[in-house]
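Teaching note: in complex prediction, the entire set of molecules is handled at once rather than each chain in isolation. The prompt given to students was simply: 'Predict the structure of this complex.' The entities are:
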Amino acid sequence: MKTLNKISLNSALEIFASYAPLYVPAGNETFSGFVRYSTGLEVRLDKNTKLGPKSLLFPRVENLYSYSNHGKDTEISPVPKEIEPTIIFGVRSCDLQAIVCLDDVFLSQTSRGGINDYNYRIRRGNAIIVALGCLEADGDCFCQSMGVDPSEHEQADLQLFDLGESFGVESHTAKGLNLSRLLENSGLLAEKKVAKPRPASFALTVDAQGITHKLQKMFDHSLWDELGAKCLNCGVCTYVCPACHCFDISVCAKDGCNGSTIRHWDSCMFSQYTEMAGGHNPRPGKKEKVRQRFLHKLRYFPERYGKFLCTGCGRCVALCPVNLDITEVIRRVKEAEIDG
Amino acid sequence: MANSLDPAATADDVKRINALLPVKAKILRITQETPDVKLFSISTLDEQLPFPVSPGQLVMLSVFGMGEAIFAASAGENCLEVAVKRVGILTEALHEAKAGQTMGIRGPYGNGFSLDIFQGRNLLFIAGGIGLAPVRSLIKHVLNHRKDFGHLQLIGGFRSPKDLVFKRELTEIWPVSEDFDVAITVDKAEEDWRGHVGYVPDLVKKLKPQLDETACILCGPPVMLKNTFNVLEELAFSPENIYTTLEMRMKCGIGQCGRCNIGSCYVCLDGPVFSLAQLRALPDEY
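The expected output is the structure of the full assembly:
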């Protein structure tokens, strides 16, 4: 396997950054996320970031088009999108699996119809993903339980393995090979006979086998009353989730005549999410909202796209103010008694 | 550049480029249907049909600076007709708009009624209030292809006599159309009202529509739908022969914004037309 000595990490990042805009994990104990690399920035690879890389492909807020009203007429102009390649460095398997889920939604990789999302398609097509395998699980991580391999992900363009003193480097795609060659040409890569490291065992595990099937019979189960009573509908779970994809489209008016139409993240936890003009709301209460969130992740998404919409990153487990832990929900569902 | 829009771009071009961008359209005509419902005829800027829609399909209308909302649309000759009840911010802005104003339109979204399933059969239409709009687009299609369908019956319910939408069609055109029975009920009558008084499910029960070779098409508020489903099943209609079209809050129209799902179905993509048999297999959440 090709290896990159950790001492040369900064040189490697400089090379990447001169090839394309580079985003790396950075921050502190309180907050960390993927930020644009510049010389001197301290890269944080000890554990996963508080916020995943989702916003680089699906921004928290983005302009769809601007409008300008003149009397009865209006001009609309789409906001041009940058189409330069972007390198996202240090993506963990859970967050990469979440990107695969977003691909399903926004690139409509399903026989059940839909249309490619223009902005997502451009960003995704130009993203080069450098993944970093995990050796140790954080206390809230449970990706293995959700069918994700923490040590590597096949959808990475370039996969890094933590070998202690160095990173193992393996390219999966032409884009990844390009990056690997840049390092090689600068003499940063060596060839070593090493085995791929295997991650240590996880503190948090849950048996999610058969959960989708079981949930198909549990829409009216009393469990949702209990969980709904506990939830505050604060929405932090959906905000930090690397796979939650719901969005709203709103108007951001500059003045009476000019402004833009924006797309921004939304949450199924919020009261107006499904409220219709006139007041009817198919999911009016906390019970219905909580049920929707868990069923979407564990039943509806698997039914539609054949995979969980939870990748076990553990962020919602860590941040929920009332400890509404999805692994606990899965356990309760597995234990629940149902008729028939 | 693939992402710059030619002013002459058609709806299809726009959809290929960016499905969330509306095309510019204009309000060709506005008809005041009832005190709180207006019918908007929407055409391209050069007064052509913005895009074809089939009965039951949806379109997203935007008032620039106010927002967007989803509506059932019916294809006219050179325009799309959209009936809008004034209930919220966007519909209020639409009601304030004048003929000639530029607006945005995108779509069509969803699957309309499967017209071939109805071919050769008797049709029972049941509509509550503004729910008559999508039903009307199907009725218009049926009347344009009258020989392809059997006996027609419409049961319509409205809050009061002044809330009758598409009044001329309801009271003057359809009742004198070939083999077409029309019954109208109002929740609350006024002195000169001579028709039925009461709710739709009760009138359906009373009229006992014929079952043979009949498909039933319903649209209305959820409470009317659910109660009428029960009455139809009591009358021995099978869930496979009962169709409805649902509306949900929608933002994208293409199965991505997340909110219009019933179970794993998105109303915008997999609906808005569902048979009762299909709905019964989904969670009761609409």
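Point out the following to students. The longest helix of chain A spans residues 286-305. Chain A touches chain B through 58 residues (CB under 8 Å).
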